[in-house]
Each structure stands twice: as C-alpha cells, then as structure tokens.
Write a structure and sequence with these properties.
One of its GO terms (cellular component) is DNA-directed RNA polymerase complex. With 739 residues, the chain is mainly β. It contains six helices and 53 strands. The N terminus is likely disordered.
Length: 739
C-alpha cells in the first residue's frame, strides 16, 4: 500500500470515529481549554487551531491545511467572500445585520486595522485574527437561514472562556468567571446563569463541530462588536473593563468622630484577577462637615482600568448631646396638688430615644423640698441631664386616695384598699347572649410534640382562641386549617383578629393579642374573605404561622369569623419546616393536660345592660367568677367529653351602662391574681394597664371618668390569655373637686 492511499484510509477512519460521538461528550463534566499553535516569527502566518480530544473521543475537527478554507454541505465555498448575502434591489453588499443584532459600521469602507485585543472573524472563512496572530477555526463562520454561526470551541480560547460538556443534561457549557452559558443541539433556547433565552437560530453540529449563533455569545457576555461589510469582517472588542463599586457602611457620618467603613465590590467580565485599586477623596475619618466625593477604580491583570465609581458622602457636624429641659407649672405646691410637668428637651437630630425621670409624680403627700431630675439619651448614646427643685408645703389639698381617683390617667394604675371591693353591691345587669360559637384551644397549653391540639366544626359566627407554649425543644409553627367538607363552595369571612407572639411571657402575648383584637374592631384592618371549594383545606389566620416559635415561646390568637356553611377547623403544631396540609392526615390528636382548658362553647357573645343610674355609690360588675358570671358549658371537640370554660376566656362582653352619674370613676380591679390586658371604652382602646400589669387585689386600673354631666358608657371586655380571673369593674363617685 503506497503512502498516499494509507493516508486517505487513516483520515477516513478518524472521520468515522469522530462522527459517532457528540462534540465534547464525556463521562463527567470536564473543562476543556482549546489550544492554538502560534508562530511568533510571522505576524500573519496561518496557524491551525488544535482540537482537544476528550475521554469519550469527541473532538473538534482539526488539521485543516493552513492555506485553505474548509467547505461543507451547507453551501459554503472556498471563497470566503462568496457567501455574503447581497441586497437584491441594488446588488450591493448588505447593510443589514445578517450577524444578528450587531452594529453595522463601515458598510463600504476600507479594511479595518486591528486594535489591541480585538478578535476578527471572517464570514464564510475559518480565518481568525487576534493581536497580530492568525488562527484557523475548526469550521468557518457560516451563515445559515440569515444567522451567522461560529464554531464554539474555536471561539473559546480566543475569547478567554472555558468549555465543558455536561453528560447528565447533554449540554455544552461555556463559563466566563461567574457567567455560565448552556447550549443544546438543535435548540434555539439556551440559558445564561439559569435564565432561559432565545437565540436567532438553533445550535447544530457541522462536521462534528458544535455551531452556535455568534450573538448568543456576544449578547450574553456583553462583548461589543462591529461589522465591516467590505472586508466581510466581524470585529469583536475583547477589551472589557472590570467593574468597581463600593458602599459606605455607616448611615450617618459625623466630622471628627465616625470611622468610615468602605465595602468594595470588584469583578471582571472575563474572569481576570483584579491586581490593583485606586481611590480618590477617600478618608477614614472626615475632619470637617460638608459634602465629599469619593471615587474608586480597579485594574485587572490585562491592564484594563474600570470606569471610576463615585459616591457622594455627606458629613454632618459632630454630634451634639441632647439638651434636657423641663418646666413645672409652679415652684410651690400643696400636698396632694397636681404637678404639671412639661418636657422641653431637644436634640440636634431630633433623636432622643430614652427619657429617665427621678421623682416625676403627679403629686407628693409629704412636705419638704423635692428634686425632680430628667436624663435624656440620643441615638448615639450621648446624654443630657437637668434637675429642678420644687417645694411641698404643709397644707393638704387631697389625700392620696382621693387624688388618685381624680387624676390618675386612663390606662394607669393606682394603689387602693382592695378589701372594700367585695363589699360593694353588684350592679343588677341584664345578661343576654348571641349565638357565636367559641372554639378554645388551650390544652395542652405546653405542647411537647407535633400534632392536632384541637379540632371542631363551626358554622355562622365563630370565634377561635389559641394560646400555647412550645416545649418541643425545636422550632415549630402553629396553623389553623379550614376544611370544606360540603358539596358546594363555602365563604369564610374574617371579621376581627388579634395575634401576638412569639413571646417569652404568656401575659405579654395575651395582653397584646387583645389590644390588636380591639383595634381591628375599630379599623377593620383584619377583615378578609375567601372561598373554600368542596373538599379543599386551606391555612387561614396566617398571622399565627408567619413566624417560627422557638422553645418556651408563647403565642396567643383571638379571631372572629363568619361562614355560610359548616367548616372544620383544625389547630395543629408542626416542625417549622413541615408542610401543614401534607402532614395533616398523619397527625395524632394530642390529649389535654388536665389543667388548662379546651372546648367548644355556644353563645360566647354576652351583653350586660343596665338602664338605671349608676355612680352615686360604689358598685361593681363581676366577670369570670363562675357564680355571678357562670362558666359557659360545652364539649371537648376531640374526645367528646363535657367542658366548662373556666374564667370564660374567649367570651366577649359588651357592657352598656345607660346612665352613669356625673363625676363617676370606672376602674378595673383584678381579684384572681395578676392581670394584663385591654378594654375598649366608648370606642377607645384602654390598657389594663398600658404599661406592665395590675396586681390583685390592691391595685386599680383607670378605664373612664364622666364629666360634669351624665353619660352613657359602652365597654367591650374579653379576658386576656395568660392573666387571672375573676375581675371586677368598679363604678364609684369621684371625691369632691377642689380648687
């Protein structure tokens, strides 16, 4: 066999092997760096670009003679100029963008001279020029269906990209720094950093070489290029600048005080390392107030500087401590005379965050000099202090008990002789109830495992009370799941709702939930409607499950709903990462703890009305004692046992006193222990008390006072979870007003 025939047979065998395996096919994802043989002796010497064979045998066809252009069955001839489309109207070279979205420049101009770090491609030619060197691509740049294609691996090494093949997804992967492009054969869709994009035409195999539209690379990687129609050149500008930016960590900067922290961010679109940086106007501490421009630039390893990035910094004058200042309406007071204090403190930024008083009282009941001190603190921790001394004379205006009844503000508390309260006559109110079903989930109060803590079906007006402590030792969430077991859609309307927590303190959670419940009654902020299809389950009252509940934290929820059909409500506790609807069929019903209450109770809206005059003598209304105010009776929705609603938690009382005498005090006195909650009196939400709690039996929290004329008073009250019952609402005459 002569040498010529042996050579032809060898070439044929290699071509057949290459045709079987897809380009870049590998057992695993392997990064491939194409290499180019470059002659450093002749600036214009043609050099064939070498293909790199991978583990499965796929490779770019190489070995094209340096002096010829590869032709294939797409109609590309050896003349690199003959494939350029022409304008059939005038016969001249096209001035439209057959390359797909590039900028048309120099449509009839002279050949383009090569700039620094440019890559020049030739239409219908395998020739590529870069930095004075000539390379030969594995396939010529090809126009197919009006779209210009390039051999992707030939472009990789020239543009500074990385090439790999993902056998799991059968995708060709191109990587540049943090940018990742993925292509599939015969698909117009490719992804850029996971985002699907549309190409001008589908990727395809040509002579076992993977071909993609040129613009899929240039657009995804923001590589600018121009087109010279005379020389049939596409000139890609690879001088992509790095990017620089920074932020200043401190929101407020004060001259001579603030140590400024600059948080920089740099990147190279081509993945080049950043080797240097340059600052203008940067100071770690600005000594003078004013406006400063700070500029930041970075340099990559190719010698490219980024565009300068500037931030304007406003430097404020040095922080001035706040000025504490107050006045009293007098300098001398009788014992039991009201002291009016006006706080006039100021801060240069209006940022006083804390006020600490010493001897700030409404009155004093012993004679002598009293020094009142105020310390104010701004947001920077700077303080200012001022003191004033007033004189208390030997003359008595009010004793302490009378003074407290007359002057204690609404929502504040005062000390009283609680032993007198049980001796007061009860107001003979008329009690009527409304058909609102109460679903109370409070046992087991301390939840030690996932499960269903309560389940009940309600229709029409319904109230749900949930109060629990997480004792599982991990983060959980609680949910109320509504299920429509009817054959027709059901409407669920949320009317009022108050949620609080997660909190470390049961009394705090219960108190705030009642405040928010009453506030929602006033402003309607929690009203919503939803339709539940037949057989559908859905999480409702989502304030409850909005946050994770950590170990020993407490949540408290009180919500009113209305449905036009029976709805099954299920209250569950679950691991914080579990799906409640998926887990629901497998959850166990948790047993009650034998201490706290759960149950379903009818008629939980109670109206207490009295049409005669009150306030001439001290009288009281007793709530939650199971005597004057009996517990609601019901059943346990989980085990069917009878239930008694101890304390009547979840019952909403509407107290209507039609004739309250002038100069009457309405106050709240706990009888069963510590209490912290809210009431709504004449459409005003009032704390019991606003700050902290009120102790039984010797503290009173002020709810309301009438003025110089008789008034009608309407009060809403519901017991706050975590507090103690029973309680008394006391109506009594005020002491005589003195001048």
């Amino acid at each position: 066999m002569n040498f010529k025939k042996w050579t032809m047979l060898t070439a044929l065998a290699v071509a057949q092997v290459a045709a079987v395996a897809p380009v870049g096919a590998e057992a695993t994802t392997t990064t491939v760096q194409s290499t180019d043989s470059v002659s450093g002796q002749q600036a214009q010497a043609n050099v064939a670009e070498s293909g790199v064979q991978n583990s499965s045998g796929g490779q770019d066809s190489t070995g094209t003679p340096n002096s010829t252009t590869t032709s294939d069955n797409t109609g590309v001839t050896n003349d690199p100029l003959s494939g350029l489309p022409t304008d059939t109207t005038n016969g001249s070279n096209v001035s439209s963008d057959v390359y797909g979205d590039g900028t048309i420049t120099n449509p009839g101009g002279s050949p383009t001279s090569m700039g620094a770090n440019q890559l020049i491609l030739y239409l219908n030619s395998a020739k590529m020029e870069q930095n004075g060197q000539v390379y030969t691509a594995t396939q010529p740049m090809t126009v197919k269906d009006g779209v210009s294609y390039v051999a992707i691996r030939s472009l990789v090494s020239r543009v500074g990209l990385q090439f790999s093949y993902d056998t799991a997804t059968k995708e060709t992967v191109i990587t540049q720094g943090t940018n990742v492009l993925r292509f599939k054969t015969d698909s117009k869709v490719y992804t850029v950093n996971g985002e699907a994009r549309q190409m001008k035409g589908p990727a395809f195999q040509q002579k076992n070489v993977f071909m993609v539209p040129l613009t899929s690379i240039t657009q995804a990687l923001n590589i600018p290029y121009t087109v010279n129609n005379t020389t049939k050149q596409v000139i890609m500008d690879l001088n992509q600048k790095p990017k620089a930016s920074f932020t200043v960590q401190q929101k407020d900067i004060y001259a001579g005080e603030t140590q400024v922290t600059y948080l920089t961010k740099e990147s190279s679109p081509t993945g080049l390392p950043i080797v240097n940086q340059r600052w203008e106007g940067k100071q770690d501490v600005f000594q003078e107030p004013g406006t400063y421009v700070v500029t930041y630039s970075v340099l990559d390893s190719a010698g490219n500087w980024s565009d300068p990035y500037s931030v304007t910094i406003t430097v404020k004058p040095p922080n001035q401590p706040p000025v504490a200042l107050f006045t009293t309406d007098k300098k001398e007071y009788k014992m039991g005379e009201k002291i009016t204090i006006t706080d006039l403190s100021t801060d240069d930024e209006n940022a006083i965050t804390k006020r600490d008083w010493v001897n700030k009282k409404l009155a004093f009941f012993e004679p002598g000099d009293v020094t009142i001190t105020l310390t104010v603190t701004d947001k920077h921790g700077a303080t200012g202090t001022v003191s004033q001394t007033i004189k208390i004379t030997n003359e008595l205006l009010y004793n302490e008990d009378d003074f407290n009844k007359i002057f204690t503000p609404y929502g504040d508390k005062y000390s009283a002789d609680g032993s007198q309260v049980p001796t007061m006559a009860t107001i003979p109110v008329t009690s009527t109830s409304s058909p609102r079903l109460l679903i109370r989930a409070n046992s087991p109060e301390r939840v030690f495992q996932d499960g269903i803590v309560y389940q009940e079906t309600g229709s029409g007006s319904t109230r749900i009370l949930v109060h629990h402590v997480n004792e599982t030792g991990r983060d959980v969430k609680m949910y109320v799941i509504a299920t429509n077991n009817n054959i027709t859609p059901a409407n669920i309307n949320v009317e009022n709702s108050g949620f609080a927590g997660p909190s470390e303190f049961a009394t705090a959670a219960g108190k705030v939930s009642i405040q928010r419940y009453f506030q929602s009654m006033l402003d309607g902020s929690k009203r919503s409607s939803t339709v539940l299809n037949p057989g559908e389950s859905r999480v409702i009252l989502q304030d409850l499950n909005a946050q994770k509940i950590k170990q020993k934290q407490v949540i408290s929820l009180l919500s009113d709903l209305y449905t036009d059909q029976p709805i099954q409500y299920t209250v569950v506790v679950l691991d914080a990462n579990a799906d409640p609807l998926t887990a629901l069929p497998t959850l166990a019903k948790l047993p009650k703890d034998g201490i706290h209450n759960r149950g379903t109770y009818a008629n939980s809206d109670i109206s207490l009305n009295y049409t005669e005059e009150v306030g001439k003598t001290a009288q009281r209304i007793v709530l939650g004692d199971n005597k004057v105010d009996p517990n609601l009776l019901g059943t346990d929705g989980l085990d069917g046992s009878s239930a008694s609603n101890a304390g009547n938690f979840g019952v909403v009382y509407k107290v209507k006193l039609d004739h309250v005498a002038p100069y009457s005090l309405i106050a709240f006195n706990p009888r069963g222990g510590e209490y912290a909650g809210y009431a709504m009196v004449n459409n005003q939400v009032v704390g019991i008390p606003t700050n902290g709690s009120v102790q039984a039996p010797n503290e009173m929290s002020v709810l309301y006072r009438t003025g110089h004329i008789e008034e009608s008073v309407e009060m809403y009250f519901t017991a706050a979870a975590g507090s103690n019952l029973p309680v008394s609402v006391v109506v009594m005459p005020l002491p005589p007003i003195k001048n």
